[in-house]
Amino acid sequence: DVQLVESGGGSVQAGGSMRLDCAVSGDTASVYSMAWFRQAPGKEREGVARINTRYGVTYYADSVKGRFTISQGNSKNSLYLQMNSLKPEDTAMYYCAASRGVASFSAMPYAYWGQGTQVTVS
Prior knowledge:
mainly beta; four-stranded antiparallel beta sheet
């Protein structure tokens, strides 16, 4: 199993920055893809950034491209999401997710999820 714990959420003014952290523990060697998803009230969960943990290749949703950066720690026990130029529409619960295989921005391949951290942009 893989355990994920997010931190770093909070409130920020539009145009500001925030970094989300995800602590990864357990069978980390089995993880192939990791991602950040978000879900706003009344909306579906959407993937915003993902990374191939073996090769470091990153992918971004169009809505965050150029503003958000996903990265992993050297030991691969941490996942980060640096968010710049935040907008009110970025307000959502943000989730860290892990998959043992190749994954996209669909939530289905991700077997492991954190509890989420709230980001509010006003």
